[in-house]
Amino acid sequence: MNSNTGEMPSFRVGSVRFWDSQTRWANLEPRQGEYDWSVLDRLVSGARRAGLPALFVVGGTPAWAAPKAPRMAYPEGSRAAPPDNLADWRRFVRALAERYSGRLEAYELWPIANDSRFYNGDMDTLVEMTRQANQIIKKADPRAIVVCPGMGRLWSSAGRSFLRRFAEVGGYDHCDVASVKLHQRSASDPPETVLAVLDAAYRTMHQAGVHPPIWSTGTTHDIVLQQPLDEERAIDYATRFYLTGLYGSVNGNLSRTYFYAWGTRNLPLVLQVPGAPPTRAALAVEQLQRWLTRARIRACGQGTAIQLPAGVWQCEFTVPDVDGRYLPSLVRWTHAGTAATAVPPHITRLLRLDGTAVPVTPGEIVEIDTRPVFMTAN
């Protein structure tokens, strides 16, 4: 969420994450022991009215708690360091968790820990902060999901090395979920390229002997500097970003994906800004979700490995009909260009994101391009 208004998306989403919403620690405790919960109360209430589970990101040390530390790129003067006294951290986490027990689904214990613009403390302190926060949160709300500090810069060996060290020294022993930032090198690159980052993160964790569920929780600090996508490419990329999350759930350890972000115009791909209707890209994501309502994902694959032309991607599902029978269905798309593919057995309809549908027959050749299509037996 990139808004502090409490307004929620008016298209279908599954969860919201609070970070660029004026809810950093420095916003909530501007002076030691003095709390201002007004913005977070508004956001939590808005999420609950919309039926959306909320993930709160704990980070952004107030200036009073680390006066000599470097500033983060935020107007309230948040510091990119742990507090000088960890008692301040414990007190804040306790106040937060007790106030929002049962109202926040999950807590992420730092936005991007392996980027010095967000965290420049040492590893031992980061692990200890994670351990302490996990204990405090679980005591206040045993059902809360604790998400380890976010790990970005995973295109680089330095970023992956930091993740591996955090794993090796036991950081992931103190949380339920790992947080990674899955994003393209550039916003103009195909969304499918993030799967290489997921694979690198998974392999790094595997080498360290840890296998937590993985949530993709954001992007790179530099995203606001990248060029906007045109409207048609935005539709393609928004829907395929959603699909790569599903792909990663089958072929990686990815169990949740957040899109960055809702509520701002200053990004390459905009879904909605407060007070305005959803963009065509957002509505296309909503259409994709309608296709997959109550679907069960079976498999995902790409190219010749699944007897399709190179460059074609596919996820297979079973989707319930009105009688509750689960019917074979699939989504196909390319990451570039077009490809001729045969309709699989049992498939009788092809649906497009613009709402149109045409009958098809098994074995019929259909052209697939960069905009996903849905094929079903229903």
From TrEMBL:
Residues 24-76 form the Glycoside hydrolase family 42 N-terminal domain. Keywords: Glycosidase, Hydrolase. One of its GO terms (molecular function) is beta-galactosidase activity. It is an enzyme of class 3 (hydrolase). InterPro entries: GH (IPR017853), Glyco_hydro_42_N (IPR013529), Glycosyl_Hydrolase_39 (IPR051923). The keyword Hydrolase applies. Coiled coil: none annotated. This is Beta-galactosidase. PANTHER family: ALPHA-L-IDURONIDASE, BETA-XYLOSIDASE-LIKE PROTEIN-RELATED. It holds the Pfam family Glyco_hydro_42. It comes from Nonomuraea marmarensis. Gene3D superfamilies: Glycosidases.
